[in-house]
């Protein structure tokens, strides 16, 4: 009887150990977030700003890993989700102007059609999508063409950030491999 009690007790005590979920591996393309203004979370925590940010972008950061990126894994002339995994999302907390067009405050999915000398960036109303598999052109809010430039030093990790351009303006910068693309944004007064 004592042996049965010991065995049953051991089994009951081991159930929580067996039921624990194993942690997942670090994703090869971890998610990141960038704000306009830069360092917004720190400014907010330190009481230096009371308002919402102007914009934020949520994206995954794949790595180059010795691969040919542009016109390699990212084909020229084809739709790209700007990163990896879930499609990149940008949220504007104020109305902004991009490519001469007013974009109402809100959350949008950001796509790209890259070319060697320019990119077409697309803001789309269909949020929470994985990649560009369910892309619907009818939900486009904006298409704008932006210039690209060659960098002298390659960028290993795909990176998107806002660069303050003063006077209610910023540039959304996208860098990866030896390419930098710049999309000017201004606040609508």
Give a description of the structure.
The protein has helices spanning 2-19, 40-45, and strands spanning 31-36, 55-60, 88-92, 96-98, 101-103, 106-114, 118-124, 140-164, 169-187. It is mostly beta strands. It has two helices and nine strands; from the N terminus they run H-E-H-E-E-E-E-E-E-E-E. It is globular.
Helices and strands in order:
Blueprint lengths: L1 H18 L11 E6 L3 H6 L9 E6 L27 E5 L3 E3 L2 E3 L2 E9 L3 E7 L15 E25 L4 E19 L2
Antiparallel strand pairs: 1-2, 2-3, 3-6, 4-5, 4-9, 6-7, 7-8, 8-9
InterPro entries: DUF2911 (IPR021314)
Protein name: DUF2911 family protein
Pfam family, one: DUF2911
Give the overall shape, derived from the CA principal axes.
globular
Through-space gap between termini: 81 Å
Task: Output mean pLDDT.
Answer: 88
Structural class of the secondary elements? mainly beta
Number of helices: 2
The largest β sheet comes out as: 9 strands, antiparallel
Number of domains: 1
Radius of gyration equals 22 Å
Instruction: Walk across the major sheet and give the strand order.
Output: 1-2-3-6-7-8-9-4-5
**Count of β-strands:** 9
């Amino acid at each position: 009887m004592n042996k049965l009690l010991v065995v049953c007790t051991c089994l009951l005590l081991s159930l929580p150990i067996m039921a624990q979920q194993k942690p997942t591996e670090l994703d090869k393309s971890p998610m990141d977030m960038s704000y306009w203004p830069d360092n917004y979370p720190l400014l907010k925590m330190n009481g230096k700003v009371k308002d919402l940010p102007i914009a934020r972008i949520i994206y995954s950061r794949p790595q180059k890993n010795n691969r040919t990126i542009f016109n390699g894994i990212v084909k020229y002339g084809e739709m790209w989700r700007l990163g990896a995994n879930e499609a990149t999302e940008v949220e504007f907390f104020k109305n902004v102007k991009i490519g001469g067009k007013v974009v109402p405050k809100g959350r949008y999915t950001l796509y790209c059609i890259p070319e060697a000398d320019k990119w077409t960036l697309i803001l789309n109303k269909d949020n929470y999508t994985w990649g560009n598999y369910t892309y619907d052109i009818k939900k486009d809010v904006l298409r704008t063409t932006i210039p690209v430039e060659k960098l002298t030093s390659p960028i290993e990790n795909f990176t998107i950030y806002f660069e303050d351009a003063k006077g209610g303006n910023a540039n959304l910068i996208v860098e990866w491999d030896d390419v930098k693309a710049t999309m000017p944004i201004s606040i609508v007064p």
